[in-house]
Amino acid sequence: MSSWSLKRERRGAPLFPVNHPIRIVFDYGLILLGAFIMGITFNMFQLPNKIASGGISGLSIVLEEVLGWVPAITQYAFNIPLFILGVMLLGKQFGIRTLIGSIAMPSFIFLTSDLPAATYNPLLASIFGGIGIGLGLGLVFHGRGSTGGNAITAQLIHTYLGVSRPLAIAMCDGIVIILAGVLLSFEDAMYALIGLFVMSKTLDVVQVGFSYTKVAFIITDKTDEMSGAILKDLNRGLTKLQGEGGYTGEGRIVLMVVVGQTEVIKLKQLVQSVDANAFVIISDTNEVLGEGFKIPA
Question: What stretches pass through the bilayer (predicted)?
Answer without folding.
Answer: 21-46, 66-87, 94-111, 123-142, 163-184
